[in-house]
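I'm stuck. Protein, please.
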Amino acid sequence: MEFLVLAPTPTWPANLGGRRGIVSLHKRLQDHGRIHFVLYAAEGEWRDGFDEAAYEGMRAQWDSLHIVTPTRPVHTWALGEDHHADEWWDEAIGDYLKWRFDRSQFDAFFVHYTWLSKALTFAPQPVHKVLYTADRFGQRRQLFESRGFNREFFHLDESEEAKACARADTVIAVKEQEEEYFRRICRSAVLTVPHFEPRFRTGSPPASPVLKIGVMGGYNTINRENFLEFMRVATPIFSRHLAAIEIIVGGGVCDALTDYKNPYVRQVGYVENVDDFYSMIDVVLVPMIWSSGIKIKFAEGLASSKPVISTAHAAEGYSAPHPYMRCESFETLAQACVDLSFDRSLLPPLVAATARAWTDSDRRLSVAVDQLLRSVRSRVPLFTILAQPNIGSPDSLEFRRLWELLQFSKGVSRCDVVLPSDVRIDPTALRKLNSVCRLQIGTDGIVTHDIALLVIMDCSSTYEQVLDAYHGDLAVFDAPGEGGLDLKAFATDNPNSSVFIFSRRNAYSAHLSKLPNVSFYETSHYYRDAGPVVRYWGSEPTYQPVFHILCDDRSKALADALRNVVKQWESHATVEIFDFAAEDMPSLVERFGKPSRVGARPRLVVDLAPERPFGALREIYQRSAVPVVAYLPDQADDTARRSSAGLHAYTPSNVLRLLHDGIKNHRRFLTIDTLSQHRSQYMFVNDAGWTVYWRTLRYLTDCFRYGLGGTRPIGSTAAAPEAR
């Protein structure tokens, strides 16, 4: 799977709790796919400079790394009483995402944090959109003001936070208490993914009668005020018991405590290596009685393997199996510190409880990630396209046909493209395909039960084993026939599967369409841009005496006779014969893929083999508004007559008259030329066939997403399920 992650927080060095939390989540996801990390360089050392070592570290962490530099001031004060959801938005992020999503395909898009939620609106519909909240920003201003403090950082009212969350398919909360809040304000799926940090090695302080208790915190009002309030309560308790306690404070919070003096407190300031800090202490203390979000220092304490003592508020979102890990007040927490200082035998049970809590957090993270992955897979179906063997260059008609089908399909789904092992494709075309989808050469390892719709563009026996193992819905963009894929057997053996066939009708497909689960749509060859030939020819009438004749082995003699007649009428006329019997379709398509090889736009095309699968060539003519007339002998069968339904059908005498008018009488010939232009406009600009295909894809996607059983025949007017 492919995951795109946008975050304002650098992940290297992972020396802060917030960074390690991002790393732990996405490293778990990296076990199931590739992580493409996009750093919006708005925090830490990246705000004012470029950290070469951190850049190289993040490149080593993730499968790819991109940097988006801010083009506006970051972390600004609210323009009104509260911020609005997009007040910190930077258009540079949107420009990058437009560019990236146009060139790459992802299964899920993770955005950290709420103030960057607008990024989710740039993801295509098939991409599963995930908002990692990390904190509740709604009513944050009121929380600060109720304590008598000024508002800080980012704060919203509930309606704006609901607006941000509504952009996501899944909202990630960091604790159950906030999960309930997010479920109340939005209709998105909400999942609790606890902050987790992997274990790190720590040493022990020298033996001492003084219990070393460590407090680590970042620079913010919440950390400062909770610590000061705790010390106001704890200092007299420590003194009353004459407790041998030293509170060691580390991290950015020390910058907010520069004037604070207390005989029980020693400040060590910013710690370069967090392992060194935890090696200085015997016990981890998390003194928080009010705040929002999850307490990263609690998770960090669990990962240090040191015993953790905490308030119940600080332990929200974590398992806390020991009473000292869930003290109800600062008084109780201070008394726990005293108890441990006098009785060190209380420490081993607390260490064991801390280890159990860490193991439980590890388990809960794994469960949450599995649930998230199931959500990604279940809400966005996988369409797999089995491509034709002869693709050629990006200018070839076959590539254009595959590209157009891919563009339509990936608009509603995840798409894989499978190329046969003997594929003929230009390296440039291969790179272009690889930039927008998952590409596989050869059929080995295809897991058919994950596929919601199998799209076949080659009905030869190349993909026979894939079809044998598949039992879902099928869309076919090639004329089926005898000796290729046995679509009749597939439809018969899989009565609950719907088979949609988009092609010219022939005897085999007419027989197939009688089966109850087969829907046949007689369409063009399905590529809106017929390549450089159409651009080279244009669609304006031509007065050069150029004629094309399509034939097969049965009509080759007639084609030669027509060429001789035209040459007698006009010696300078050019008559090109395309013999289906002498050239296979890939050769003909490749010949048409280069304008220099097909010459000028023909004035008229005579189709002497309308039952033959000349669909790609006919479409080029029709897109260029070139008149195509089909010669139907009196003994022509029903298949030939149906195949010529989109063409002008003429008798032999009428064909000769049209050829003569094309040379001698421009005014009379202009009537059919104008009619061809109208027909081209109707067939390819309006493009009703694509509309039908698109409607079907959307319907299948909705059935997959909302768990609705069954499908409907393509072209049905039944309404698709409403979005929930």
In short: The longest helix spans residues 347-379. Residues 307 and 350 are 5 Å apart (CA to CA). The domain at 211-365 is CATH 3.40.50.2000 (Rossmann fold).
